[in-house]
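Researcher: Go.
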Amino acid sequence: MSSIAAKTEQAPLGADGSGLRPGGATLPRSIGGLGSREAVPAAPVRDQYWDHARNALGIARLLVQDRRPEALIDTACRAAIDSASRAALEQAGMRFEGDAERALARLAAPRDLLSAVSSGTPANRLESCERVIAWVAAYLRSEAPERSWGY
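Model: Structure:
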């Protein structure tokens, strides 16, 4: 079997369906010259979710700037909020049950935090999404101050 075929038969990341590497997984990193490899621990799942949230928020910002369809902006905002919620729940040791609103309530977020995300102009929706991400970042800063929680 060729090495290419062997690589395509490997299990996908996140056998649990999350698309993320498990916290204990390692990634190969090439150092020095060719063929020199060292195993590097993968980022904790919490950090991977946070990176997904930051990326989705960046996409939402670009979509608003480019005046793209509202459905795309809504999807990017929802993806950012879901991923940020998952990061915070992971930090708190809780499971995500598929509902960002419920997740934020479990984290004691203000009840009206999500209310404007699905209404108003695309710019208003983005601002609402940014408020949610800012609240989650503040939560994570208080729980894990050793890491930067910029967005």
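Model: Residues 1-13, 26-33 have pLDDT under 50 and may be disordered.
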